[in-house]
Automatic annotation (TrEMBL), chains A, B:
Entry keywords, A to Z: Cytoplasm, Methyltransferase, rRNA processing, S-adenosyl-L-methionine, Transferase
InterPro entries, A to Z: Alpha/beta_knot_MTases, PUA-like_sf, RsmE, RsmE_MTase_dom, RsmE_PUA-like, tRNA_m1G_MTases_N
Gene Ontology molecular-function annotations: methyltransferase activity
Family membership: Belongs to the RNA methyltransferase RsmE family.
Domain Ribosomal RNA small subunit methyltransferase E PUA-like: 22-62
Chemical reaction(s) catalysed: uridine(1498) in 16S rRNA + S-adenosyl-L-methionine = N(3)-methyluridine(1498) in 16S rRNA + S-adenosyl-L-homocysteine + H(+)
Organism the protein comes from: Seohaeicola saemankumensis
Gene3D superfamilies: 3.40.1280.10, Hypothetical PUA domain-like, domain 1
The name this protein goes by in its record: Ribosomal RNA small subunit methyltransferase E
Pfam families: Methyltrans_RNA (PF04452), PUA_4 (PF20260)
Kinase found in the keyword field: no
Localisation: Cytoplasm
């Protein structure tokens, strides 16, 4: 019987009969905070082996042991989509990472643009947000959060075959989003999603040289997100929706 | 010269030569916090007359006076779209209101469903969030936030001619979003957006009787927001994007 209410991301392999040792933090959460006792069910996923129902075999203050019982959900990989965004204020940056994990991005890349103030990010904190989003939302995959990278360096070493959709929102351009030069392609029915990336500009917009470079790249596709100015975190969710509908794994008849 | 950095929502009429008196709060913000002095420019909007550049004519601690100089932006009305949502935790409810204002909803209606815990909302606080979102995002219109209403009462008195798109996300249905019975229509090119509403379910999903009723309504259209479970705030932005792309005022070639 699957009576488990708690979903937990773990690093260890999961499989029939597999034993999963718990570190101090997880033991404290499960036994101290959530008051689970021996025999209680927990849903586990590790981003590779799907979701498993496990039972508490040993519950201690500083550790514990879970036993995998049965697979409850198969691994569901997101499309090969990267979300590139310029870090903004802490709460909104956290939010973008959470939403990217929920909306099915495979990799999250904070980028430093000419108009980005952030010199560094807390990669470990952002990665923890991605894990928490997957735990909360029934995901079986956790996107990797990369370290902060300069946009020009990322574009200089751009991987062959990956397309880039970029959204030019912000106040810098006087309120009008750049009109797309060509419509975004649409995935043909039956074709699998292709490697793509979405780039969300910083709140101040891209610099003129960044914008010129982006428009000159053969793999880059500008898109408009409507006639209103969107904050970067709103633009991230809207762009992920647009991409998933047209090129990703959403049901295209919806 | 438009040197104004600050955008402010006011209640008063705006027009050439119009004088706008400031209450204590706004005077404190402009002169105490932002340190504006006489002659400084401020952008004003009231949701009816577009955006106007005004100049500080009198600056005091308890009040002040602005003079309208020139219109800087015409009024841009959103499509006639309502966003109905079940209030959730405070921060995420605030977020939904902010995003609805940014994404171009005309009216925001918190609804009480069978699985909603909220008994009341702070309508004034949510309305202030909608105002702030419009101030920050260059909007010239502020959606009205309605008082909390029971979903069954709202549906019983549903206005003729308004369509309803509903999103059935959440944990209650075991993770699979309901497949749409028919694709959402698409606005014909040249046709203006029609009256619609979007309904976002509570985190626990709709109750079986609510779901049955929604599916039986001739004006209701179920939609799927992809294969992943979305939190209610994510679903709100994704649903607004989907609607704006297919039926609203976004450029449909994007």
């Amino acid at each position: 019987m699957n009576d488990a209410k708690i979903r937990l991301y773990v690093d260890q392999p999961l499989g029939a009969g597999q034993t999963v040792p718990l570190d101090r933090d997880k033991a404290h959460y499960l036994f101290g905070v959530m008051r689970l006792s021996e025999g209680a069910g927990v849903l586990l996923f590790n981003g590779r082996d799907g979701e498993w129902l496990a039972r508490v075999a040993e519950a201690g203050k500083r550790g514990g042991l879970l036993h995998c019982e049965a697979q409850t959900r198969q691994l569901r990989m997101p499309p090969d989509l990267w979300l590139l965004f310029a870090p903004i204020k802490k709460a909104r940056t956290d939010f973008i990472v959470e939403k990217a994990a929920e909306m099915g991005a495979a990799r999250i890349v904070p980028v430093q643009t000419d108009f980005t103030n952030a010199e560094r990010i807390r990669q470990d904190r952002l990665q923890a947000h991605a894990v928490e989003a997957a735990e909360q939302c029934g995901g079986t995959f956790v996107p990797e959060v990369a370290d902060l990278v300069r946009l020009d360096r990322l574009l200089a070493g751009w991987p062959e075959g990956r397309q880039l959709m970029f959204c030019d929102e912000g106040f810098a351009d006087g309120g009008a989003a750049t009109a797309p030069s060509a419509p975004l392609p649409c995935r043909a029915s039956g074709q699998l999603p292709q490697p793509w990336a979405i780039l969300i500009g910083p709140e101040g917009g891209f610099s003129p040289s960044e914008r010129a470079r982006l428009h000159s790249l053969p793999f880059a596709h500008p898109v408009s997100l409507g006639p209103r100015i969107l904050r970067a975190d709103t633009a991230a969710v809207a762009a992920l929706t647009l991409w998933q509908m047209r090129l990703g794994d959403w049901d295209q008849t919806a």
